[in-house]
Design goal:
alpha/beta; 7 helices; 50% helix; disordered N terminus
């Protein structure tokens, strides 16, 4: 049944954590799902923002416009939330108060909502439980990855591995050139737009080369 011949509206939502990740990568899957189920999205929105924050303008826009019985289609549950449990409850309550259904591509149990297959309400109860459980699992995965990254950084630091941005070699060479031309540190900072640490490094390298 199409959302064009009944009041039910269907919204598609895509999210990626950073600008380096392309949230549009899941667009083809969402469009293919729409074609298979004979509907068109009222909105198909994407944003690059962390799932660990509740302040998501595009998702908020969908929730604002959605009405009871409408559906939000997402690729995976973690596209909707990696929130701590208390914040997840806030988001979930907003969705429930609107009477909106969540349809997850990799969770077939939810697909029936597209066609209004919830005659007894039992499907909604079971699906809400599954979604809450999956949301907690997504958050646990997020916390586990953060913990492992922190462990890796601590181990690298203990082994003396330098962590941080790679030095700007081109700017470092420019600072050396200015030092050789007897520019003052204040003049170098203004001219090269750098900090004192880079000037110290440039001076140390010049001294080593001279030695």
């Amino acid at each position: 049944m199409s959302n064009m011949n009944k009041s039910r509206m269907i919204y598609g939502y895509m999210r990626a954590s950073t600008k380096e990740q392309d949230s549009l990568r899941s667009e083809q899957d969402l469009l293919a799902f729409a074609k298979q189920n004979n509907f068109r999205y009222a909105m198909l929105l994407n944003e690059n923002i962390s799932g660990a924050t509740i302040d998501r303008p595009e998702l908020n826009k969908i929730i604002q416009y959605a009405e009871s019985g409408d559906c939000i289609v997402i690729e995976k549950l973690d596209r909707l939330s990696r929130l701590p449990y208390e914040l997840w409850k806030v988001l979930r309550n907003r969705i429930e108060q609107k009477g909106v259904y969540i349809v997850v591509l990799d969770q077939p149990m939810t697909h029936g909502f597209i066609h209004g297959d919830d005659q007894t309400g039992m499907m909604k109860v079971l699906t809400d439980f599954m979604i809450s459980l999956a949301a907690q699992m997504a958050r646990d995965d997020y916390e586990t990855r953060r913990y492992r990254v922190a462990q890796g950084l601590a181990k690298a630091k203990a082994q003396g591995v330098r962590i941080g941005r790679k030095p700007n070699i081109k700017k470092l060479e420019y600072v050396k050139k200015l030092l050789l031309q007897n520019y003052t540190w204040a003049e170098i900072r203004k001219e090269a737009r750098c900090g004192q640490d880079m000037i110290r490094k440039a001076r140390a390298e010049l001294n080593n080369n001279q030695g």
